[in-house]
């Protein structure tokens, strides 16, 4: 945890070094690395705190593995949001559910090599972030339905409802950020919502890993 904290300071310096002097922009790669490390530190602290407040018990392997996958995907979506912020890709298409006149916009993966588009082409970056969101919505709702069918109780049940609630809030904030053309307060709330969603997912993962079968 201390090493990650020290690394965050170095990443912050490295990020600022790429801009904010003559041009008020920084590298999207460095910004995303700085954001990702911050989220890792937060997640590490949150998981450690949860461990101090609970007593380990047998795992519910199926649901717990699903919850871990969700946490990982939410983290990746946060990283994709860092690329959106770092390239100002949110300004490219301020419509939803379509991007312009179609769901799949023209020019996707148009850079050479094609994989570079995922990191530097603003159309592709925004499209990928949207698809990430759709996948996570589908998986969270599937996970919640599956978990609640088991009549799960205790902290895990509360966490599942919190997860769904934060998901709805995050989707609402994400759409609002787009259609209102990236207002800073809404965009900032969207970033906070992403961390809240990850927190709920980690809480569910930890609760399932520490609940009796």
What key attributes describe this structure?
single chain; 213 residues; mainly alpha; 7 helices; globular
Give an overview of the whole structure.
- The structure is a single chain.
- By secondary structure, this protein is an all-alpha fold.
- The chain has one domain.
- 71% of the residues lie in helices and 0% in strands.
- The chain has helices at 2-17, 28-52, 61-87, 117-120, 122-149, 155-179, 184-209.
- Helix 6 runs antiparallel to helix 7 (184-209).
- The longest helix is centred in the middle third of the chain and has 28 residues, at 122-149.
- The protein is globular and about 55 Å long.
Mean pLDDT over the residues: 89
Distance between the termini: 31 Å
Residues in β-strands, percent: under 5%
Shape: globular
One letter per element, helices H and strands E, the order comes to HHHHHHH
What would you call the structural class?
Answer: mainly alpha
How many separate domains make up the residues?
A: 1
Instruction: Please summarize the sheet with the most strands.
Output: none
How big is the Rg? 19 Å
Report the count of strand segments: 0
Number of helices: 7
Helix coverage percent of residues?
over 70%
**Low-confidence parts, pLDDT < 50 over ≥5 residues?**
none
